């Protein structure tokens, strides 16, 4: 009887691992296919062998400019920003045990957006200054939210409410800047706020690439503690997790990634909100959904950008498409939580 139970447990583990590997592999293959589509498709559709020659450093008339200046930077920006948004969103939702607890809803991206709009409309700064300001503002915003939500004990609800309040204040500040600035500054600010891969440059992407490559392993290493935090404050403390220290590392790592991603692409709506739930639905909840959530973020950003470029008469920024996808899900989630008495 005991041996049968052990065999059933081992079989269940193998099935869950196979499901995780299969789902993650399929997401990776889909992300790779979308990366290829980003390089192949455009006003002129180049054959794959031409794209390969350009990537290998060969100069091909017409194709070299299109690939190196437009398509490759756009693809790399979408790849790493999507991964950053997905991983950060999953981390927040798991750590705070609430599907609403993502950087978009909690005002973190609003901090970056407010700084960027201020630089565009008031300072009329260049892209480098805008990027630095948005990263610093994102980190400052999460620090303020965390400090204001601190009490005798950590409260998830208090953190979310404070975050939503800060977001409302920052959104009002952004609206004020847009209403009072000159007309010539508004298009650039609106384009940045919509979230877009347009105008991405390879020279601006190293901070994002480095942040993702350095901070993702940290979050993976912290994955077990992250899963234990999902059990609640008392249970995770009982199991030996230093909750405050763990949250600080998770928050700083996630916010740094999402702030840098936002500084490059703008606040692409709902990617961090959708990636985690989709990943959990695909791989299950028994194993970490961190890497699958990152891949879902890549698929959402690249897929939405392709839809925005080629599915309509007019070209739409990626943030408009992800907003159309995410808004119905947010409404459905709120309805479900209200029925369960969680609101």
Number of strands: 0
Question: How would you sum up the global shape?
Answer: globular
Radius of gyration: 21 Å
Largest sheet: none
Tally the helices. Answer: 14
Name the structural class. mainly alpha
What do the pLDDT scores average to?
83
Helicity range: over 70%
Order of helices and strands: HHHHHHHHHHHHHH
Distance between the termini: 45 Å
Summarize this entry quickly.
By secondary structure, this protein is mainly alpha-helical.
Helices, strands, pairings?
Layout: H1 2-40, H2 48-55, H3 63-95, H4 108-123, H5 127-148, H6 156-180, H7 186-194, H8 206-221, H9 223-229, H10 233-238, H11 243-265, H12 271-283, H13 290-310, H14 318-339
Helix pairs in contact: 1-3, 1-13, 2-3, 3-8, 3-11, 3-12, 3-13, 4-5, 4-6, 4-7, 4-11, 5-6, 5-11, 8-11, 12-13, 13-14
List the main descriptive attributes of the protein structure presented here.
343 residues, mainly alpha
Report on the architecture of this protein.
- With 343 residues, the chain is mainly alpha-helical.
- It contains 14 helices and no strands.
- Helix 3 packs across helix 13, helix 4 packs parallel to helix 6 and helix 8 runs antiparallel to helix 11.
- It is globular and about 65 Å long.
- The model has no long low-confidence stretch (mean pLDDT 83).
